[in-house]
Amino acid sequence: xxxxxxxxxxxxxxxxxxxxxxxxxxxxxxxxxxxxxxxxxxxxxxxxxxxxxxxxxxxxxxxxxxxxxxxxxxxxxxxxxxxxxxxxxxxxxxxxxxxxxxxxxxxxxxxxxxxxxxxxxxxxxxxxxxxxxxxxxxxxxxxxxxxxxxxxxxxxxxxxxxxxxxxxxxxxxxxxxxxxxxxxxxxxxxxxxxxxxxxxxxxxxxxxxxxxxxxxxxxxxxxxxxxxxxxxxxxxxxxxxxxxxxxxxxxxxxxxxxxxxxxxxxxxxxxxxxxxxxxxxxxxxxxxxxxxxxxxxxxxxxxxxxxxxxxxx
Length: 313
Description:
Helix content is 40%, strand content 14%.
């Protein structure tokens, strides 16, 4: 055995996207993570659209001699993907590859390092306001991806509150790019009545993609409709150094066996208001039809998959 195969290998699992830019940013982050662990076998796998898919990643590591694999999900929150789709695939792959054990890590979650990374993205965007800028006169809008899991959505709201209090904004609220409400355009129009003349729109996303680009488009449309308001678009998280440190923390927790998801508010374990029917549903994936189907660059046209489906399982 080589030194690399003496230690558990690393599989960095991404959601996947048809957007080439988003896939490229994920691969760059995964490369940084690999560089942090030069003594390990390391590769990537996507849940949907992009390639290599999760099975390709596992097969590659096994071919290199790995029998222990730690799968680190590149997910901000634990919703349907992190709770069902990814573990379902990993369980199936462990049955296919006899003698191979895959340990599943936890999502990045509500973490002090992630919140600090978010604050630095927001603070950096404030340079666009000029010398007379005052946070107390500014509205912060944090945009989450949106999920059918209220626990995941509420975590975005919690992060918004910590950012609002920690940075001292005049007001802050959370909205979403899809699946749940309020959506960005509706939320901005409602908030306009508060009278803020400076607004920061911050996508709490790891990578660019169709959704982030749509959020920025909505921001531009709000700006055009209200020229008396100065709208600033903050950068998303991407491979901020503190994001990379958080990935490392989650990997170390998985290897030590100390990483645990939030089961107290898991809609598949306990009755959560409005989702009582989901308790006890089987753990199964639903991305077979788009697994490895490719990005926009593969066929030169837009497939229009805007993630309007609810990701229920």
